[in-house]
Amino acid sequence: MLPSYQEVKAGMNVKQLIYESTMYIHSNYSEQISISDISTRAYFSPSYFAKIFQVLTGYTVGSYLHRYRMYKAAKELTEGNKQIIEIAFNTGFLSQQSFTKSFTKTYGITPAKFRVQKPDISQFPPKNMWKEMLPPMELVDCFKNVRFIKKDAYYVVGYESELNYNIDGGTDPIGSVWDKLNAEGAKDMIQDKCHEGTYGITHSETSDGLAKYIACVEVDTLDNIPTGLVGRRFEASEYAVFDTTLEIIWTGMFYKTLYAKWLPDSGYKYREDPATGTYEWAPFIKYPAIEVYPKGWEGTESLMHVYIPVEKK
C-alpha cells in the first residue's frame, strides 16, 4: 500500500516511494499510463520524479515502462499461444504495427520469429537493481562536511547542447561542449568573467528525459555574449555544497545517496522550479544544480564541488 501524504511529508523513504512506483508500472503496464499518473502516487512533480527515478533505477520512466512491456510481451510469446495482436493490446500498444516495430527494435527480430526461435530472455527489471551497495569511504566523506551558502542570481556564458536520456549516446554532447570550452582561446573570448573556475550545469529537464547542458563560466552581465556561445541567467537560492570528485559522480553513487539518504535525513528538500519543466521564457531559468570545477582542476580524481539548490522542508 502506498503511504499517505502525511507519511511522505514526515520523511518517508524516497527509495521506497520509487520502488512502489515500479510496482505500479508492473500492475498497470497494459494501460495508457503517463509519467504524471505515476509521479502523483509518489507525491512528486513529474519533472522531479523523473530525475529521482532515473538516478535510483538507472532508467528513465519512459524507458523502464517500455522495457517492462517488451519483457512481458516476450514472455507471452514464448510461454503461450495468444495472437500477436492480442499481446500488443495486452502490453499497452494501440496497433500490431507499432508493437511489431518496437519489439523488433528491442530484440532484433520480429515477434513472429521470436515465438518460433524462443531465445533466452533476460529478466526485467534485473535482480540486482535494488541491491544495496556498501558506499566507499570517499563517498561517505562527501556527506560529512556539507556547507550551506546563499548565492545571488547569476549569469553564465558557455557552450550548450541538448541531452536525451532515452537513447544510447544521448549524453555524449556533454563531452563535446567541454571540448569546445577548453579549446585554446575559447575562454579568452568570454568577457566580464567573475569566477576563476568553470561550471557544468544540466537544466531545463523535462519529465520525458530531455534536458540541456551548458559548460560555462560565470560572468557579471549577458551584454557581451560571443557569437556561437549561449548566455543563461539562474535565480538566487540557498545551496548545499558537497566536495567530491568526478570519478565518484560517474559511479552513480553520489546522486543515489543524495536523493535516497541525505535529502530525506537532512531537513532540506531539493528546490524545484515551480514552472516544472516549462522553459520557453529562457534565459530566465531558475534553480539547477551546479558542478563547479575550480581553477587548476586536473582530472577525474581532482576535487570539485557540487551545489544542490535546497530549501527547508
**What is the overall shape?**
elongated
List low-confidence stretches.
1-11, 276-283
Largest sheet: 10 strands, mixed
Give the strand content: 15-25%
CATH names the topology of the largest domain as Multidrug-efflux Transporter 1 Regulator Bmrr, Chain A
Overall structural domain count = 2
CATH architecture of the largest domain: Alpha-Beta Barrel
End-to-end gap: 24 Å
Number of helices in the DSSP assignment:
12
Q: Give the name of the CATH superfamily of the largest domain.
A: Regulatory factor, effector binding domain
Walkthrough of the structure:
With 313 residues, the chain is of the alpha+beta class. The protein folds into two domains: 63-117, Homeodomain-like (Arc Repressor Mutant, subunit A); 137-312, Multidrug-efflux Transporter 1 Regulator Bmrr, Chain A, CATH 3.20.80. Helix content is 38%, strand content 21%. The chain has twelve helices and ten strands. Strands 1, 2, 3, 4, 5, 6, 7, 8, 9 and 10 form a ten-stranded mixed sheet that branches. Helix 6 (84-90) packs across helix 7 (96-107). The longest helix has 19 residues, at 61-79.
Which key terms come to mind for this protein?
12 helices, disordered N terminus, 313 residues, Arc Repressor Mutant, subunit A, Multidrug-efflux Transporter 1 Regulator Bmrr, Chain A
Explain briefly what this protein structure is:
This protein has twelve helices and ten strands. With 313 residues, the chain is an alpha+beta fold. Strands 1, 2, 3, 4, 5, 6, 7, 8, 9 and 10 form a ten-stranded mixed beta sheet that branches.
